[in-house]
Amino acid sequence: MLKNLVQFLRGAAGDKEPTLQEQELMKQVDMNKIPVHIAIIMDGNGRWATKRGLPRGVGHRAGVESLREAVNTYSRLGVNYLTVYAFSTENWKRPQEEVNILMDLLVEYLHKEIDELHRKNVFVNALGRLEDLPVKAQEALNMARRITAGNNGLTLNICLNYGGRTEITEAFRAISVKLLEGQIKINDINENLISEHLYTSSIPDPDLLIRPAGELRVSNFLLWQLAYTEFWLTTMMWPDFRRQHLLKAVIDWQRRNRRFGGI
Ligand code: IPE
Ligand code: IPE
Ligand code: MG
Predict the structure, then answer these.
(1) Ligand 2 contact, 88 CB (< 6 A)
(2) Is 213 touching ligand 2 by the criterion CB < 6 Å?
(3) Residue at 64 is within a domain
(4) Residue 167 placed within a domain
(5) CATH of residue 97
(6) Is 43 in the active site?
(7) What is the pLDDT of residues 63-85, one digit of tens each?
């Protein structure tokens, strides 16, 4: 058992030796009760950098390290879907220079990591109004999707130019077209039909939402899908997230009592 555990942790972070603390945490994880879908609002990169007297872009780069750790850890645990908020429909309000840095980092991440992601059986997917992203970002996403299309391990959903309200609005439009064309009737409109018209159609709702950086809001993320999701909030900044914190969130989630409105 302990040998497997150590192998697990090694595999989850390259060749890094698992610390005693991580081994201790790993023993607390119930491997028979792993969340199917984890969502993360990768927030706090800017403040992480500013606190260190560094440009915000350095914080975004450090945040990519945490993403790498999250993909490794959760794919090892057997999580099926990891949905990360990388760029919101509101993030275009930021200075052009920062937007450029974020888009360049995305392209760099995909090119640098794609072989490793593919080797780990990860399917890389993107959610959002992707047609408004810079062409080079769209091309990198298409490349990643094409290469990993046949993988059946973790699905990594990267939310880009994503907004929950935009997603629901687009679903309204698509459903209205079907209604007007007579493909569906008013009575066909139900919760399932709406879910099927979201970017996340065919993906179960998140079991766990992780939001770092001390913010107590959803910031337009997965508005429909979070109806009964458990929140794990922390004042830690996203670039400080390591394997132990990712495990801790899962352990805490496993101890929650989800009632879904029941008693
Ligand atoms: C999250 O970090 C990354 C994106 C929103 C793209 P922030 O850039 O929002 O970091 P803070 O919140 O300013 O610290
Ligand atoms: C949410 O973070 C979006 C991403 C992490 C991509 P923000 O930093 O944009 O959210 P607010 O502005 O604090 O609500
Ligand atoms: Mg922020």
Answers:
(1) yes
(2) no
(3) yes
(4) no
(5) 3.40.1180.10
(6) yes
(7) 999 999 999 999 999 999 999 99
